[in-house]
Amino acid sequence: MSQSPPQSLPSSSSHPVAPRDTPAPPAGHARASALTSTLGSTATTATVTTALADELACCSAVFLPADPPRAGRVAFWSDEAPPADDGALTPLTVLDVVDEDIRPRTVPALLLSVRDALPVLARARFAADRSPSAAFWGAAALFSLDLVARGLLLPGLTAGDLDAWRVGPLGAEEVAALRDLAASMPPSAHAVPLPPAEADGEGLLLPEPEELLRAFADAVADVLPGPRRRRSRRAVGPSPPTSTTRRVRCRSTVPGRRTWPPDTTRESDCRCASNW
């Protein structure tokens, strides 16, 4: 399955592309909203008040992938005022268009775990004064939660041999919806450049929208409560040995188990491989 290359920064003669309107929430957004409420009541890594959530809806937002997916973060920053006290902020490099030139700059950002960010993003999706990027990631949160609520989950190992869950198998309808949503991603929603190791010496590169959105959906699948995963067994067939199905929260690696995830997912994924 071929993947689209990362997006290169536009030349000095280019103009930033105006973001398309974010598609409407998926038809199953009621299921997603219910799951978001559950996450909001069980969040443990940060305290996000209603007032802070309303403030974050006005901020720019971007997803920062990680290995494993559940370790990803959502960063919020604002040019007007920091979204939190200085002690809670982390320096973040973002790319700006200034006089037709792309320039990196450092902003103070509030980093939330995916679990804590989901209720904030879902709220931002419908806020009157939301930023374009917060609105986009709010739509992405509802889209991802709807996939999980429908039991579209598959087990696997990450590149670092860590256990993880991802969304899938995705049919033609889900793939089309994902691509439509990715095409609406505004520049500020993927303004953090790729790490140098992933840029292959080509300078500053932006993450490819579809890949970043898929990584976010996988992160959502990897942070949800365990009981929700029971529905995924119908999609992946017989469970692998018990020792490999338990979540490895301590980030331990299981390279010896890399053989079973492809075996359990190959039949499901091959049915929609042509969609990718």
Secondary structure: elements and pairs:
Layout: E1 7-8, H1 29-42, H2 50-57, E2 60-64, E3 73-77, E4 90-98, E5 101-113, H3 114-124, H4 132-149, E6 153-157, E7 163-167, H5 172-183, H6 196-199, E8 205-206, H7 209-223, H8 233-236, H9 242-245, H10 260-270
Antiparallel strand pairs: 1-8, 2-3, 3-5, 4-5, 6-7
Helix pairs in contact: 1-3, 1-4, 2-3, 3-4, 4-7, 5-7
What can you tell me about this protein's structure?
37% of the residues lie in helices and 17% in strands. The chain is of the alpha+beta class. The strands form three sheets. A four-stranded antiparallel beta sheet has the order 2-3-5-4. Helix 1 crosses helix 4 and helix 2 (50-57) packs across helix 3. The longest helix has 18 residues, at 132-149. It is globular and about 40 Å long. Residues 1-20, 38-45, 227-250 and 259-276 have low confidence and may be disordered.
